[in-house]
Every structure is written in C-alpha cells, then in structure tokens.
Amino acid sequence: MKTKKTHHKVLKHKVLKHKVLKHKVSKHNISKTKKIYNINYPRAAILPHAGKKYAGDARKNILIHFPRYKIKYIIYISAIHDSRDILPGVYQLYKDTTFGKTPQLPIINKNEHSFDWVENELRTHFPNVKIFVLTPVKKYDTQIVKWITTFISNHPNSVLFSTTDLTHHGKQFNNNILKFPQRLHKQYLEEHLIYSLIQHPLQLHKIKQYTNQSELLCGPYAIQLFCECVKKINYSGKVVDYYDSHLENNKLDKYTVTSTHIKNIVSYVSIIYGPTINSDKLNNFDIMLALGSIKSEIIKKLNNASYSVKLPLWSPFYNMHQGVFVGTSLNGKTNCSYGRYETTNTHKTATKIIEAAGDCLLDAKNRWNIPYSNHLLDKLDYKIELLDPKHKWKKYSGKHTERYFKLNGKQGIYLKLLSGKSATYLPVVAREHKHWTIDKYMENLSEKAGGNKYDWKKGTIWIYESKSYTWDGNKHKIKLS
C-alpha cells in the first residue's frame, strides 16, 4: 500500500507538472498573438481624391508606407460633394459584400468622386482588401466613432482612410482667394490647418475651427470624424507630401515657388497616422520641400520680388536648431556655399535655410563668379547640408588636429583662431581634396579664417559630421552624402 500511495503521489505530481507546462505553453501562445498587434506601419491616413494625373503621386506617397498584403480591411470616410436634399447623419456609400458586420446605416445611392477616383488605386495596392465607405453629412455621433475605433483596434490588418482636397482657386472653381504667387499664398492659408492635423494629441476644437472655413477644403465633416477617431486611438501623424494641381516639368518644381501666375489651382496634402509615427523625423519629402524653398528664395532674389518665402509651419525643420549650409553648383562647379551656424534655441533651422539661400545671389556673383540667370536655374544642382547639433561636436586644441581628425570625407572642422576669427570646412572639402595632408588642409583653413597658415596650431578646433542632400539637376533625383 505504501508503494502504491507513493506511486500515486508521483503520478499526481506528473499530472500537476503537465498542467503547469500546459499553462506555460498557453502563455507563450498568448504572447505570440500579442506580437501581431505590435505594428510599426501606419494605421490611418488623410489622402487627396483628385484624378490620378494630378493627385496620383500624393496618394502613392501614402500607400508606399502600408504593407500591400497584410491589409484586409479599409474603412473609408468619404467626402460628399452634393448633399442637397440629404438629412444630416452618417450614411453608407459602398460596402464589399465580404466586409462583414457593419453598423446599419442609411444608404446613399449616388456616385461620389472622392471615393470613385481613388478606389482603383486602393484595390491595386491592396489586392486582398475589403472596403466599407461611409460619409457624414453635416453631423455624426459618438456611436459611429466607437464602432470605427473598436474595429480598427481589434483588426490589426485594417486601416482607416479619409479624404480631402484643400484650397480650390480660380475661375474654374468660382473662387479668387489666392494672391500672387498663388503657390506660396495657399501655403500661408493652409499651414495652420495642416499643423492642427499633425499635433499630438489632436486638438479637435482647433481642427473644427479650421475645417469650418469652407474656402480651405472640401469634406470638412469627413475630416472631423476621422480626427475624432484618430484622437481616440491615440495615433500621431506626419505629412508625407504637399503640392498642387499645377503640373511641373520636374519633381523639384512641384515644391518651388516660381514667378509663374497660376490661374487655377487645387492643393493636396498627404498625412499618415499610427502608433509609431514621428512627425519630427526627416523624410525625403521634407528634404524636397527644403530644397524647393532654396530654389524659391533664389528665384525671388533674382527677380527682385517682395514676397516672403518660408517653410510651412508644420515642417520638422522648425523643431531643429542645428547649423545648415545651402549651396548650388553648375556642371560640377560650385557657385554658392553659404550657411548659418547653430546659435540659440530661438533661431530655427527652418529660418536658417531661407536666410542662407537669400545670400546665394551675391555669393554666386562675387565669390564664385558664376552668377545666376533665369535660364540656368533648372540646370543647377541644389544642396542642403545639415551639421550635427553642437552638443555632438568634439572640441580640441588645434595642435592636436592630426590626432583626432580623419581626412576620410566624413568629418568637417570649425576652426577658431586666437584672434577670434573663424572658418569651417565641410566634410565635402576632404572628399574633393584627397591628396591634401592634414597640415595642408589646416593651413588652407587657417588662411580662409583670415590668419596666416600656421595660426591653426594655436587655435581651437571643433570636429563635426553632417548629412548632405543634393538635387541633381540633370538626373532629377536626390543624392545623399
């Protein structure tokens, strides 16, 4: 009996051990399931709905951020351009029969181009997607917000889209709201609205204040409903494209204010949202917009115009303070290299970019002897070089330059002489003068600063790195160095 009892205890122990193991396996499975929800791609977006010829690139620059085959459901909050004789409320415009259970909404049986002109691109990018389209007419309630946010939260393979086209200007639209230059003025008009759409958390009262201005956009209630959902799920947003319907010969000119009078114009913005979106992180669009503003300022100066070029308020360059150099070149020959160093936290990098570009006209003529002319502007390369923030710069005595500085083309030096005079060589100088020794490099820099060629040994140096982005005027693309 004693043996049997002992054997029974052993069996019981094995059973308990099995239960513990089973419990551990279950926990492991749960954690695996949770990983599905740990998503690093966007979950929502505001996109324009104009035809592909005009706004196709703006939508493409949204869709490239979303995985094609993972997305199975789209909830699309459409605008409604003809709501005459429709009572206020939320309506169903379209639903794929395989979408599944949705709220019982009254149905509007009419074509709505803010979905029709976009549908084919959505289905092409997401080949397995099921779409549910709804539209608010003048109002919506908390129940629809709750249903949308619950669905998006519970379905990691779903996304929420809404749509708007911004300012419509010209005879074609019975609207003459924009002054010359129209592209710049529509930026002034729209920048506070767009800024409100990427603030985190979203300030719904500000969004309603701007979207209630009928001249700013179409589909205001669609955007209000979308933003209420995004705020509830706590997503942050970032602008990934912003241009207009005036067609240009090259990509950079889409972001450039020229001297052309634009008779008819519709403005487009593309914004993505998600749990991991960082609006301050620079992307290619931010760089293109900055390069376009450099060209815009040069055009303004060359034509003695009186308007003020600036980056839009929502540009991430307003949250940066580091130094920046801008430049241009023609057939590989530099004809401007001008910059602004990091000084105070109130002097934003966004402002520095325009200020430096404003100095290029005289720099090209007086220093480089390759002056600008209107017929050469499209042939130029345009460059923006962002210096490391100052807290990353390494300070050394000039006599120790050889110990710490590498002529590898990745480092630049800021030299300050005992006299107080100073100068810098950007990293590109080392790349372009590979035959130089460090002594030769520093002697030339010392003379550039206004001293004799040996003064650097008693001076102070700061070593830094930078990132350079160049618009190639011949190949029409950005080069990174």
From TrEMBL:
Lineage of source species: unclassified sequences, metagenomes, organismal metagenomes
Xref: InterPro entries: AMMECR1_dom_sf (IPR036071), AMMECR1_domain (IPR002733), AMMECR1_N (IPR027485), MEMO1_fam (IPR002737)
Protein name: AMMECR1 domain-containing protein
Cross-referenced Pfam families: AMMECR1 (PF01871), Memo (PF01875)
Domain AMMECR1 positions: 312-467
Coiled-coil zones: none
